[in-house]
Description:
Blueprint: H1 4-17, H2 20-23, E1 31-33, E2 43-57, E3 61-74, H3 78-94, E4 99-100, E5 103-109, E6 113-116, E7 126-139
Parallel strand pairs: 1-2
Antiparallel strand pairs: 2-3, 3-7, 4-5, 5-7, 6-7
Amino acid sequence: MIEPSVALQTALRATLIAAPAVTALVQPDRIRAGSTRPDRFPCIIMAGASTHYLGRASGDQHLARINLDCHVWAIEDGADTAKAIGFAASKALISMADDQDGFSIDQLDQPRIVWLRDPQPELAYTHGVIEVEAVIRWRA
């Protein structure tokens, strides 16, 4: 398996791209990892991952808690479009499969979704952050 946060990020992206409600609002190539300031709108950008290794479990398995932010950006129709994207993404992640390629998800939570005001309101950006927290398990 690749580094745990990258593995989860890859699985999150695949889940979002496979969700018709999400891709009706955001083109698949605009659902990506990278810097949080977008170049094209609307988009979902995954960033700010952290990994907390939790140790070993039975059967030579390993556990880690991953925190990752999914940034939702929109211009058109401002907050309405961004919040529709955030809701569609949140629903898709809630139903994400437990078994992934090379690891399993023991727990997946979205403790907060925060909608931020852009420091340049004349540009009419809407920016939200979906916090994702997961505990994953894999074999060494």
